[in-house]
Amino acid sequence: MPTRKKRPKLAVFKFASCDGCQLSLLDCEDELLLLADAVRIASFAEASSRVLRGPYDISLVEGSITTPHDAERIREVRAQSRVLVTIGACATSGGVQALRNFRDVKEFARVVYARPEYIDTLATSTPIADHVKVDYELRGCPIDKRQLLAVLSALLSGRTPSIASHSVCMQCKLRGNVCVMVAHGTPCLGPVTHAGCGALCPTYHRGCYGCFGPAETTNTGGLEWALVAAGASQEDIARTYATFNTAAPPFRRAQEEQLVQIRLKEGRRG
User: Fold this and answer.
1) pLDDT at residue 215, rounded to an integer
2) Number of H helices and number of E strands within the chain?
């Protein structure tokens, strides 16, 4: 009797995050059954308490690095993983918790916790790629399950995954959407946001919120004029970039430019 081919081991790891990207994998439902038959799920706390020892053929990593223990553990994960894929805004850009990067974290701990001396945390929330080599990144808050399945399918069949690098505007055109900024004057980050969501919000006549982070090439300065024409103030624009991907360099620079302009205006009024 022929022996069954040994199935590759898949592990899913969590760091500082809300677990939403792991839930996107569970939301695959029928496809997850096929995936479970193609791999051995070695570690996935959202789905099972069973943990198999590494090494792992594919590791999916959700969450950012926010503690010294995180920084040590991600190096252990990398050492045990043949392919490491980061999933979601927390893992790829530090997440919304990276708002802490620009304030005094010790002051936060003093205000929030009765015994802040017991809190062992880093001053920053940083993406996984700041600490170890990452093979592939899937953006989003949360990730798109279709994109995740496409990447896993490619890896399991020995192909190099193809991850879109264009902006949400391209996805709008592919879906035949009318531009919400041009037609309705709705502020939209689609021109500077990485594709992956299928242009979900513009399809329903809402502006893009930038959930998938900056596209490979961004022109936030050029977009500013369109946002102002659509009725956004400089305060609005700064807040728009200060969300899920606040620490992603292009979005962070855009925030800082707006804040500088706001301070200059306030200085002139004063």
Assistant:
1) 93
2) 12, 5
Pick the closest to residue 60 from 171, 142, 165 (CA basis). Answer: 142
Domain boundary, last residue among 104, 136, 156? 156
Q: Are 184 and 152 within one domain?
A: no
Q: How many CB atoms lie within 10 A of CB 48?
A: 10
Q: Strand locations in 47-186, DSSP E?
A: 56-62, 81-87, 136-138
* Of the candidates 176, 173, 172, 169, the residue with the CA atom closest to the CA atom of residue 190: 169
The domain that holds 30 is classified in CATH as: 3.40.50.700
To which residue do tokens 């709008």 refer?
172
Whole-Å CA distances, 246 to 32, 50, 125, 195, 226 = 32, 35, 11, 17, 21
Same domain, 19 and 121: yes
What domain range includes position 262? Answer: 168-269
**What pLDDT band is residue 164 in, cutting at 50, 70 and 90?**
confident
**Contact of 121 with 109, CB cutoff 8 Å:** yes
Residue 113: inside a domain: yes
Residues 256 and 218 reside in one and the same domain: yes
Given 156, 186, 218, the domain boundary residue is 156
**pLDDT tens per residue across span 193-248:** 999 999 999 999 999 999 999 998 899 999 998 899 888 899 999 999 999 999 99
How many C-beta atoms lie closer than 10 Å to residue 25's C-beta?
A: 25
Average pLDDT over residues 164-191: 93
Our count of domains for the chain comes to 2
